[in-house]
């Protein structure tokens, strides 16, 4: 069962108060997508995963908590340009701003995850090209994370498979193939089925969304 509360939060940067929604709990029934996007009950709460101060534009998981270097990031030309957003959906802008904030604070796992959320929000809004750009940003952040010997998912095989799907959905098929080739053999029929499914979809240059259940069951 989904539970969302609202309450006043004071921005850690500008000190101004605003009413913010807080996700307390979200239902989860059904299969996640191959890039780990949760099933409908949970993913329908995405608008509440990041907060934004309406006064100064500070975007973060919780605006009453200061992210390292937040003042400089909010004032930077790049952040301001991103927040203006142009024609981008407001939720996509908010998530990308939060991702930028977390990146400059050195919190790469959260920065990558929030960029992926932005891709999901762009999918929902029909902003196809922005969804692809957000996925490419996610991949770049995950590559940087791996170069530091860190990981988004502790199981490197599972992480690699998620990255394959992100690359495929972004239309980065060569990148997806390299990631598939780099996966270590695992004696797990379900894992093998997912790898085989992805190889088929990548070969077909397919950018469509699939759930884990669909892929594990043999796919289309």
The beta-strand count equals 4
Instruction: Report the sheet with the most strands, covering strand number, pairing sense and barrel closure.
Output: 2 strands, antiparallel
H/E order of the elements?
Answer: EEHEEHHHHHHHHH
Distance between the termini: 31 Å
Q: Strands across the major sheet, in which order?
A: 1-2
Find the structural class using helix and strand composition.
mainly alpha
Q: Assign an overall shape.
A: elongated
Total count of helical runs of at least 4 residues:
10
Overall mean pLDDT stands at: 91
Low-confidence parts: none
Gyration radius over CA: 18 Å
Q: How would you explain this protein's 3D organization?
A:
The protein is mostly helical and 220 residues long. The strands form two sheets. A two-stranded antiparallel ribbon has the order 1-2. Strands 3-4 form a two-stranded antiparallel ribbon. Helix 3 packs antiparallel against helix 4.
Secondary structure layout plus pairing:
Blueprint: E1 3-10, E2 17-25, H1 40-43, E3 51-52, E4 59-60, H2 70-75, H3 77-84, H4 90-104, H5 108-125, H6 128-147, H7 156-169, H8 173-181, H9 189-203, H10 212-216
Antiparallel strand pairs: 1-2, 3-4
Helix pairs in contact: 3-4, 4-5, 5-6, 6-7, 7-8, 7-9, 8-9
